[in-house]
Fold this protein.
Amino acid sequence: MEKICWANTDNFDESKFIVVGIPDESQSHALRKGTADAPNKIRQISNLQDSFERNGKKSLGRPFQGSEKKVHDFGNIRRDQIEITYDKISTSSKIPISIGGDHSITRQIINAIGKKYEKISLVYFDAHPDFVSSTTNYYGSVINDVISNIVVTSSVQIGIRTPEQEELNNINKFDLKVITPFDIQEQGIKKIASSLLSKLGNKVYISFDMDCIDPAYAPGVSVPVPIGLNSTDAVYLLKEIAKKGIIGMDIMEVCPSFDVKDRTSHLASRIISEILYSSGEK
């Protein structure tokens, strides 16, 4: 298996960030299939488009700002290995960067690392609230399935634009903060970032469904929705959160079989790089 180009050590113990692929879409109900291919595709594209060879040496197209961190690519794991793998990562005080797979994987990650961190602040980038409660343990019920492990008052959803009525009812019931693409358009990205950072607690986990971004920038997702975030605004917010410090992040729902010239996989690789280089380590 090809390692992501941002990995720079084979030593788990000396690394601060651990990249983990989870090629599983068994709890997706999407008509588009193929998110299980994303971890390896994102790694492949990172090496093809984010690294260069000059005079026999590898050179990365690194972010303009920030510093390189020690990164280990753990490889791929099965869904039934999540608990033991993330227990190892969290007890070693390392920060997982996970690549799915369908978004239901996030439930298992948060519930696993919750054993160390207890309740966390969740920043959930998605076109969909994933707050269905009438059905559980699938990619549309993630928030309901982790609600006992998050601090709702310091958690935020970003990019939401296609909620079902049941999800709107749950958002209102729990008073969960939502930032829509229209909020960013009206208020501006700096004001949004400032209000977001002031809301978050000390133990911040980012879950990033690539469909939060408009299909014009990220066409290769399993459930695309128009009128989304532009990629620059999304990454700006990610960088600001990362500077504050995170305990983990995942990128979910990249669907390579529906991508256009690997645009979405390349964006995912760039997002990972910006998080790594911006991070103020927790």
Remarks:
- Strands lie at 17-22, 51-54, 57-60, 71-76, 95-100, 121-125, 156-158, 177-179, 204-209, 248-252.
- The longest strand covers residues 17-22.
